[in-house]
Write a structure and sequence with these properties.
Elements: H1 2-6, E1 8-9, E2 15-16, H2 22-35, E3 45-48, E4 52-58, H3 81-87, H4 100-111, E5 118-120, E6 128-134, H5 140-151, E7 155-156, H6 157-164, H7 169-181, E8 185-188, E9 199-202, H8 204-211
Antiparallel strand pairs: 1-2, 3-4, 4-6, 5-6, 7-9, 8-9
């Protein structure tokens, strides 16, 4: 957290300042400690990059929780219920009520005008859950794309340009690729290989997160 406050020096010599809210990082780490699988002998990893913060904990989502519904439904139980019980006996418990931690992260990111948290697990990861907090302000074009995809499931480069007002096809291609690379969109290529027919949809995580 001290590193996030002070920033880091990147190879170019400039200092990167982090906009990711401290509370969002604290909640993500607390969730990792509470919900990790302690039978897997591996540490929780906190990685700080120039453009994002990643927290990865051993073990898949417990019970009925997935990257799609996390924070929106109650879990059928706790993996480490004894740990949760003891933490709640603290004068100032580090953990919020069930589901509230994830919601707090989303609210903190949204209030800071940052992209929603992204959750990766199987099949991207074999036996862990990773939350990604992007250190990047939401682009105005993304807000328009996201609004469109709340009503229509798919969008193409051509429609995206109409929605956002971006005139250059190459520029929109770059934006769509960036959002795919960050895990916000999923690219669906046509079987014929006809590039103009390529479609995009919200990833499960970003779709749910933006509705919160």
């Amino acid at each position: 957290l001290t590193l996030l406050r002070s920033g880091i020096k990147i190879p170019s010599g400039f200092m990167t300042k982090y906009q990711v809210p401290e509370r969002a990082v604290k909640e993500a780490i607390t969730n990792a400690v509470i919900h990790r699988d302690y039978y897997i002998k591996r540490d929780i990893e906190v990685k700080i990059f120039e453009d994002r913060v990643e927290i990865e904990n051993p073990g898949l989502f417990p019970y009925n929780i997935t990257s799609t519904n996390i924070g929106h439904i109650r879990s059928d139980g706790y993996r480490n219920d004894l740990l949760v019980k003891h933490l709640r006996e603290f004068p100032s418990p580090p953990n919020l009520d069930q589901n509230e931690g994830v919601r707090a992260i989303r609210v903190e990111m949204k209030d800071s005008n940052l992209y929603p948290p992204i959750y990766w697990t199987y099949p991207h990861l074999s036996d862990s859950v990773r939350i990604i907090l992007l250190n990047e302000k939401v682009a105005s074009e993304w807000e328009k794309i996201n609004h469109f995809l709340k009503k229509d499931k798919y969008i193409t480069n051509e429609i995206a340009r109409e929605v956002t007002g971006v005139l250059q096809r190459d520029k929109m291609t770059q934006l769509l690729k960036k959002w795919v690379d960050k895990g916000l969109l999923i690219q669906i290529k046509p079987p014929t290989g006809f590039v103009k027919a390529t479609k995009y949809r919200l990833s499960d995580t970003s779709e749910i997160s933006q509705q919160a």
